[in-house]
Specification:
By secondary structure, this protein is α/β, with parallel strands linked by helices. The chain has two domains: 133 residues, Ribose 5-phosphate Isomerase B, Chain: A (3-Layer(aba) Sandwich), CATH 3.40.1400; 226 residues. Helix content is 36%, strand content 15%. It contains 13 helices and 13 strands. Strand 12, helix 11 and strand 13 form a beta-alpha-beta unit. Helix 2 packs across helix 3, helix 2 packs across helix 10 and helix 5 packs across helix 12. The radius of gyration is 20 Å and the shape is globular.
Length: 385
């Protein structure tokens, strides 16, 4: 039971998102979201702002990355309507986003340029009322499971992650893909050392070359900054029992299951082919989950052995690799995959996870949603002017 947008895409939430073009208006965006919660009623399920520090003093690829992520979030089907808040003098102008989003988004995407407004809070409320009126027309209805797009991510892993949680998510991915749905695997540095487990599954030669270019491009990025490609796992991973990059990578790629890889999505790009896709992104949790959201993921499955409280713009289900974590952090963890270590089969556990994903897609709130934890982070490589 999801929402169907005018362009035919499905959504698992019916929310209003406030997106600042530049960090200078972060507080105004957050003020607008906080002061207008009375608009969350009926089928409108949430009103959220997503501050970030960029949008100005950036050039080249960094400017392109910020624009691409904000455009991807503005296009996301979970956002029934969007208010873009600009300052007026920043590098990333509202007009750039208007042009890229196109005229078909006029009804659902509104723009507020604060330097042009007499009272930005009053004008922002008027625009948010228009967003709420537009969003209120949508109601949940039956949607094929094949419309679901689920992001796959891990963080704070431990020695059980590659034995319990990640294989369970991989089996889930295969189940969803078998029903015509889509999954997205990212964290390119955490594929190093396990490339062959992925490259042999590319659906065709073109996808293979794109995957190779993605992996090599990320190595070149490390080397260009004088960084050691082997700088992984993190201290927390090591404390949890992971000793080498290959340990980490072999566990990470298991989240992709065994389905063919049908596409390679650039950073800031959107998924276009149904099935398992690879997405250019770092291992950093907030940056990569933001990229998964912008790529079109309706939900994200986040496996962890140590726990983390954050949430992405889309519902983020935390999956514990061990029972101890699930019992210690019940306000963080949505699903306990540690039952695999106690004898339950991966297949049975994956089917249980599949049912939880469907419940979440139909509106059951994740632990991070209940705690109102949502945020974004954007990849940065170059200079700050």
């Amino acid at each position: 039971m999801g929402y169907v947008r005018p362009d035919g895409r499905a959504a698992t939430r019916n929310e209003i998102w406030v997106l600042p073009t530049v960090g200078c208006v972060n507080e105004i965006a957050c003020q607008l979201a906080a002061a207008n919660q009375d608009l969350v009623k009926g089928s409108v399920e949430g009103l959220h702002a997503f501050p970030h520090p960029y949008g100005c003093s950036q050039t080249g690829t960094d400017h392109d990355n910020t624009r691409a992520i904000l455009v991807g979030l503005a296009r996301h089907p979970n956002a029934a309507a969007v208010l873009v808040v600009g300052l007026g003098c920043e590098n990333l102008q509202c007009e750039q986003l208007k042009k890229e989003l196109g005229p078909e988004t006029v009804d659902r995407v509104k723009f507020l340029v604060c330097q042009e407004a007499d009272d930005e809070l009053a004008e922002g409320r008027a625009l948010l009322k228009a967003c709420a009126n537009y969003a209120a027309q949508f109601r949940r209805q039956p949607v094929p499971v094949s419309k679901l797009v689920v992001g796959l991510k891990c963080g704070g892993s431990d020695g059980l992650s590659g034995i319990t949680a990640n294989p369970v998510v991989g089996r889930f991915s295969d189940l969803l893909v078998a029903q015509g749905g889509s999954t997205i695997l990212t964290e390119v540095p955490e594929m190093f050392g396990a490339e062959e487990l992925l490259l042999g599954r590319c659906a065709d030669e073109g996808v293979f070359h794109q995957a190779v270019a993605m992996l090599q491009g990320f190595r070149d990025y490390f080397v260009s900054h004088g960084e050691n490609v082997y700088e992984n796992p993190s201290p927390g991973n090591k404390a949890g029992g992971i000793t080498t990059l290959e340990d980490k990578s072999c566990g990470c790629v298991q989240k992709g299951g065994m389905a063919p890889i049908v596409g390679v999505v650039p950073y800031g790009g959107q998924v276009e082919r149904s099935g398992l896709n690879l997405l250019w992104g770092p291992g950093n949790d907030l940056v990569s989950t933001t990229a998964l959201s912008a790529a079109g993921a309706h939900l994200i499955l986040f496996t962890t052995g140590r726990g983390t409280p954050f949430g992405a713009p889309v519902p983020t289900l935390k999956i514990a690799s061990n029972r101890a974590l699930a019992e210690k952090k019940p306000r963080w963890i949505d699903f306990d995959a540690g039952i695999v270590a106690e004898g339950q089969s991966i297949d049975q556990t994956a089917r249980q996870l599949f049912r939880l994903v469907l419940r979440s897609a139909e509106g059951a709130r994740t632990k991070s949603e209940i705690a109102d934890r949502r945020g974004i982070a954007i990849f940065k490589d170059g200079v700050t002017l």
